[in-house]
Write a structure and sequence with these properties.
Strand content: 5-15%
CATH architecture: Alpha-Beta Barrel
Number of helices: 13
Mean pLDDT: 95
CATH topology: TIM Barrel
Order of helices and strands: EHHHEHHEHEHEHEHHEHEEHEH
Amino acid sequence: MRASSERILTSHAGSLPRPDDLIEANRARAAGESDDEARFQAQLGAAVSEVVRRQKELGIDLPGDGEYGKSMGHRVNYGAWWSYSFQRLGGLELSGPGLYDFPVQRSRPGQIVLTSFGDRRDRSRFRAAYNDPESGITTGPRPNHWPVCVAPLTYTGHAAIQADIANFKAALAANGIEEGFMTSVAPGSASRIGNDYYKSDDEFLFACADAMREEYKAIVEAGLILQLDDPSIAENWDQVNPEPTVEEYRKFSMRRVEALNHAIRGLPTDRIRFHLCWGSWHGPHTTDIAMRDIVDVMLAINAGAYSFEAGNVRHEHEWSVWKDVKLPDGKLILPGVVSHATNVVEHPELVAERIVRFANLVGRERVIAATDCGLGGRVHPDIAWAKLASLAQGAKLASEQLWRRASAA
């Protein structure tokens, strides 16, 4: 995994805006209106090549494939990073209630269970805002049915992940780029669906780890950087009702870390980065857990780099956590310095300030400037691309400050 040596490098969290024709092709494909797979793959490959070209043009050093292989049939969609796995796991059946229609579940002292998405504490606190269509709080169309595991879980997405890899590697080669990353959902998040087969949630969690390991191996063995997406590490906190103690939640989350480490066992840590976020919906987020309470949980994951939200107004102040937390030797961080949570495009000088804060605490060579979360499906495409441009411009300003200061010294 490339690290900064002469300047601050740039990357992002994964999802980028899809072109309208690809969104329509995905919709038609999902609806059974099109079965020309060769034509679809050609269209997808061309789109991936273009999104890589555009990232390079804007100054993104470590590009992704935009998550274009993860089907998104609407322009506003916050869940493709996760829902794509439903088509790549055998043993699932779309027979469960909708994501917001699961029965309300209450935790008890010493026993944590996740309640319905509709019963989240932030949603309950701001129920009027969440139910107001003009409030700006949306995650796009909601699925009517949610997957339920009804048989042994297996990975069936070998052809799909190989197609994604081929498209991305071709795009990297066509644009003269040596290194790129591809995202994959981590077991903790993959297991947040119904389970009617395994005896316990813990058994189901590790079944997800064993199944998704096939995808992780395929990405790493293809020579790409694997990014593991697991908002559940932070986001689950809001879905535990009533609020648990921090220690109870840390114990609950560490089991998800153990499952993830089990899934990536034997894979080179310097080819793996981990993405943490508090959920990308545009809500108040007043019930988010503090970064300080879970930073060591994140660092227990056997990855070479850690991506996390640091640019939105609920979490920007938490850069100061790194005054007290030592980043392990050989590890990198990818703090978000532009955010998906606002339509305001960050000024490059603000971006530079954010980067320099982290560089001063962990070392300039150990910081890669990135985004809070994926931009695709969350802000308008024109705004998303403007944010990436500002990210690159801010990294250039930060580099001038950090390396000029070192030369003067």
